[in-house]
């Protein structure tokens, strides 16, 4: 304190820290102590190693604090000092508030460290006890000097240790959360009232971090959050709309972290000059270079845009807890509207520039937590979904999602799943399904299976989803992943247009691959002990897979095969004239359907495919008899002419393929562990994984 806190500083030797955690009460009016105590500069921990280092250096001090604070009430004094600093900030000019912001940040950082320690090592009730604890001799006063000592004079009030038991009883009566509620209101005021500027950036960040720490009580407690005083206080906050609005604006604007904190330069001097302060504000507002082009996007986002990152994580925490109950934060997020909309629109919880929010999400959608927020907005906020569907540059949103799926081995199964759900929600809109085939892309360098000079966005989407299905068959074997992949393709199939030859090949090859897998599995069931049977490398025979398991796999496989056939049939029924390359591929690969023509689960739909193949095959045969052998371009010419004379009325009618994503019951069981996993792995705050109890530890850690 009164120094730079580096990794080498021995914090236990600091006289101010020793007094704060010691046996004597330090009143809030002791300006001399608090001004010295809060006059330090620290670089915030940026990773788990740095957090662990800080925690280990603070542990002895924290233990001393726990031992003495219920009798000294020094934590309450610190809270009061912090509350005073915040209330004064709201009335001061920028120049006057510099030192107050610095001190308020330092006070809040100490509070955050102590709260984190108490949450990780104790109970919520014990934490609230420390919030409300009063000094033994000051319990019946308002911390005013009783001996005429002037405020500002350094005063240490000795504690009468004989009154300990009486104090414990008094403290127990006082644990009603009132002081915590006042503290929470101060955090909210920092976030929603004080404007974000260069010298306030880290104060806002610390306020957001402190809210995340408070909510982390759910990680370290086995009690339900309905019984949590902290959760009840946060979720009955009257400022949920303004808080959610501020957090979403922090994300949308994506202000880059300033290179210095509170005006500290390399020399450690503090900026007081008004001209320098004004210049720092102006330079902070200028357009920042796009650091997010870095290869490790999550790390770049966390390190260079920490306020946006932490605000995003706090939004996810607030909206996913109490998901099935009256949650004011969910209502707020799902009810917001575009600030550019007409005032005549239905009332909104708050307004935000959807254009800015959309562009930000496009930039960071490959990050796990951004994908989850996009899912929530698309699925729950009809205004935002409508806005997204109307965009002309959908490739900016869709391509990064496809890259996430393409690089599936580098992503978590949850991220892959949410990316697919986003595509499924998008595919529910007919305009989306039509427009993706009108957006042409060139030189997609990250797609390395085959060099494609030009392809539609819809074609690329089909390729990546098919690749995801095949990856799932080999690696994940997740039935729900298959279902969602195929549901997205099915929704799009009635609008397939101008399919690239390679896309058509991959569609039919998907059926061919599944058909071979079906044949092998069927053979293994009929002759399980045949030594000459070709083993299916994707089915671990001999690794505990029973006949019942194989029958279940066969049933799932037949469902998938049926879906692929329905997708092909839907395209032929609605868009045959616009898909000559698909007809060409079906003619070339007609034999792959041979084994299923007599299968009761497939014969009705294969009759349609056979009818199309037979129609164009007979036309090609007649032309060949006249011209001789035909080249690819000539075959496509015959198909195009034949398509103009083809009538889909010849085909058997099937219901249109329309799948709609519906969130399962008890979504909290999936989303809460998922969100806290993201907080632990992608956030700026790092927790002790050894004492996590409340959320599935194997997921979080």
TrEMBL record:
Pfam families: Dymeclin
Keyword Cell membrane: no
InterPro entries: Dymeclin (IPR019142)
Cellular compartments per GO CC: Golgi apparatus
Biological process per Gene Ontology, one example term: Golgi organization
Keyword annotations: Lipoprotein, Myristate
Family, similarity comment: Belongs to the dymeclin family.
Official protein name in the record: Dymeclin
Species assigned in the record: Anopheles merus (Mosquito)
């Amino acid at each position: 304190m009164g120094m730079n806190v580096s990794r080498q500083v021995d914090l236990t030797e600091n006289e101010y820290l020793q007094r704060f955690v010691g046996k004597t009460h330090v009143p809030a009016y002791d300006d001399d102590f608090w001004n010295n105590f809060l006059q330090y500069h620290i670089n915030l921990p940026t990773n788990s190693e740095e957090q662990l280092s800080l925690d280990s250096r603070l542990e002895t001090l924290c233990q001393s604090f726990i031992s003495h604070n219920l009798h000294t009430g020094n934590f309450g004094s610190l809270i009061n000092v912090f509350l005073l600093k915040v209330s004064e900030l709201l009335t001061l000019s920028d120049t006057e508030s510099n030192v107050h912001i610095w001190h308020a940040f330092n006070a809040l950082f100490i509070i955050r460290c102590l709260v984190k320690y108490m949450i990780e090592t104790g109970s919520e009730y014990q934490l609230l006890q420390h919030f409300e604890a009063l000094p033994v001799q000051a319990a019946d006063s308002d911390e005013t000097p009783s001996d005429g000592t002037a405020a500002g004079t350094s005063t240490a009030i000795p504690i009468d240790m004989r009154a300990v038991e009486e104090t414990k009883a008094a403290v127990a009566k006082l644990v009603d959360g009132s002081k915590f509620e006042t503290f929470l209101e101060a955090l909210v005021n920092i976030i929603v009232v004080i404007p974000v500027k260069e010298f306030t950036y880290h104060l806002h960040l610390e306020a957001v971090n402190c809210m995340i720490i408070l909510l982390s009580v759910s990680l370290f407690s086995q009690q339900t959050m309905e019984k949590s005083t902290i959760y009840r206080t946060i979720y009955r906050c009257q400022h949920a709309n303004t808080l959610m609005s501020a957090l979403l604006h922090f994300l949308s604007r994506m202000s880059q972290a300033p290179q210095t904190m509170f005006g500290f330069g390399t020399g450690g001097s503090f900026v007081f000059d008004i001209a320098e302060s004004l210049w720092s504000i102006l330079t902070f507002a200028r357009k920042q270079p796009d650091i997010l082009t870095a290869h490790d996007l999550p790390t770049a986002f966390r390190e260079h845009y920490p306020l946006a990152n932490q605000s995003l994580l706090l939004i996810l925490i607030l909206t996913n807890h109490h998901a099935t109950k009256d949650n004011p934060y969910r209502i707020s997020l799902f009810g917001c509207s575009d600030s550019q909309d007409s005032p005549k629109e239905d009332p909104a919880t708050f307004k935000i520039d959807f254009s800015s929010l959309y562009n930000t999400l496009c930039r960071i959608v490959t990050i796990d937590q951004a994908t989850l927020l996009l899912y929530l907005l698309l699925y729950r906020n009809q205004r935002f979904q409508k806005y997204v569907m109307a965009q002309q540059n959908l490739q900016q949103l869709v391509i990064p999602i496809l890259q996430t799926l393409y690089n599936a081995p580098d992503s978590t199964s949850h991220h892959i799943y949410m990316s697919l759900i986003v595509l499924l929600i998008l595919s529910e809109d007919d305009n989306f399904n039509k427009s993706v085939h009108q957006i042409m892309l060139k030189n997609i360098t990250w797609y390395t299976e085959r060099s494609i000079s030009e392809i539609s966005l819809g074609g690329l989407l089909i390729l990546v989803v098919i690749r995801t299905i095949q990856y799932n068959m080999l690696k994940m074997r997740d039935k729900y992943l298959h279902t969602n992949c195929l549901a997205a393709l099915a929704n799009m199939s009635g609008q397939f247009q101008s399919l690239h030859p390679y896309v058509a090949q991959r569609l039919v090859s998907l059926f061919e691959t599944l058909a071979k897998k079906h044949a092998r599995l069927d053979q293994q069931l009929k002759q399980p002990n045949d030594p000459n049977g070709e083993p299916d490398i994707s089915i671990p025979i001999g690794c505990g897979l029973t006949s019942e398991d194989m029958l279940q796999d066969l049933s799932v496989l037949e469902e998938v095969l049926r879906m692929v056939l329905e997708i092909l049939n839907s395209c032929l029924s609605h868009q045959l004239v616009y898909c000559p390359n698909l007809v060409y591929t079906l003619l070339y690969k007609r034999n792959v359907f041979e084994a299923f023509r007599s299968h009761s689960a497939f014969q009705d739909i294969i009759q349609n495919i056979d009818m199309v193949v037979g129609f164009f095959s007979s036309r090609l045969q007649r032309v060949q008899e006249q011209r001789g052998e035909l080249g690819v371009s000539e075959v496509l010419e015959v198909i195009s002419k034949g398509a103009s004379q083809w009538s889909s009325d010849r085909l058997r009618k099937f219901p249109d393929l329309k799948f709609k994503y519906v969130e399962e019951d008890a979504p909290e069981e999936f989303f809460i562990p998922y969100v806290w996993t993201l907080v632990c792995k992608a956030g700026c705050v790092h927790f002790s994984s050894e004492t996590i109890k409340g959320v599935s530890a194997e997921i979080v850690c």
